[in-house]
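Severity: low
Component: inverse-folding endpoint
Summary: output formatting inconsistent between runs
Steps to reproduce: submit the following structure tokens with default settings.
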């Protein structure tokens, strides 16, 4: 049995500009230890941190949060897999970078071991104002430029920055105004370190990202070639190879010279030609079905591409 995180008995209060959320007593809370803090450092700049330990599966609601750029660290027991900590798109060796989340409900498995999360969240306007005073790292500025397209990626950072993220996660719960001020100082240090990440590290990040995207594009090509007879959509391909749709379409075009639908059509027609040549025992209807088409539409697409009908092609 699982429980929705919003159904737990939360208690909220404000302290020094920080919104603090913790669990109160109750039957369900006996098996769950959770604590959340959200602190607005400045207008458009927020620090969020969370601790979670549960003996019962926790279901997080669907996430659809636009309008901000975020960087975060997620820490968990070394024996946990990414899929067991509710958000498999977050990696636990690098800093995660995103411009919003669009994910269905996720489940946090009941491993009864603590996991931690710390995030800086920015409004694009805040970052652009910052950029006017000191140039932002290219990877961060890029997220602001594509704020309408979901991007979730990772970037390698200095060990000191990862250690700072861990310190923020492990700091005691804020009980006094001075605790809030210490948390504010940590958040400002995190932001300052972001601005000072060496540019050569940015270039290495993009090189690694390019290799990762190339592998995922090849996975998508393999799926099309192996499953061309089934119904394939860009959305389903992007989900299966775990790549943003925009990146998938752009990378696919760069790799093949064709859009995804164009490539799928060309591959299906290529296979249909092989069947028409080599399998005279198959009817046109069967060939159409084996290549993922309805018979009438298959004839239309085939004739549009080759000028002649499938039946005439076979006769020739």
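Observed output (run 2 of 3):
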């Amino acid at each position: 049995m699982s429980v929705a995180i919003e159904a737990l008995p939360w208690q909220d209060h404000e302290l020094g500009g920080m919104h603090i959320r913790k669990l109160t007593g109750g039957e369900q809370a006996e098996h769950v230890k959770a604590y959340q803090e959200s602190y607005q450092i400045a207008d458009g700049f927020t620090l969020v941190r969370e601790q979670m330990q549960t003996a019962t599966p926790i279901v997080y609601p669907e996430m659809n949060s636009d309008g901000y750029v975020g960087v975060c660290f997620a820490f968990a027991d070394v024996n946990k897999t990414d899929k067991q900590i509710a958000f498999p798109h977050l990696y636990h060796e690098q800093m995660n970078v995103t411009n919003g989340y669009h994910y269905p409900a996720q489940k946090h498995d009941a491993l009864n071991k603590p996991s931690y999360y710390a995030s800086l969240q920015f409004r694009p306007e805040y970052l652009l104002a910052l950029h006017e005073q000191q140039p932002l790292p290219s990877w961060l500025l890029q997220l602001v430029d594509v704020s309408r397209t979901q991007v979730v990626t990772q970037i390698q950072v200095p060990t000191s920055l990862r250690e700072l993220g861990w310190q923020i996660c492990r700091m005691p719960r804020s009980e006094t105004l001075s605790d809030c001020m210490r948390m504010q100082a940590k958040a400002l240090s995190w932001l300052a370190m972001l601005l000072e990440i060496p540019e050569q590290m940015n270039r290495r990040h993009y090189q690694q990202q390019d290799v990762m995207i190339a592998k995922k594009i090849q996975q998508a090509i393999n799926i099309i070639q192996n499953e061309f007879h089934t119904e394939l959509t860009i959305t389903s391909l992007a989900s299966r190879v775990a790549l943003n749709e925009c990146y998938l379409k752009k990378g696919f075009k760069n790799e093949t010279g064709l859009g995804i639908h164009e490539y799928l059509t060309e591959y299906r027609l290529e296979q249909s030609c092989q069947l028409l040549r080599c399998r005279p025992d198959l009817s046109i209807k069967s060939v159409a079905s084996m290549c993922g088409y309805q018979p009438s539409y298959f004839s239309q697409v085939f004739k549009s591409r080759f000028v002649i009908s499938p039946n005439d092609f076979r006769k020739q």
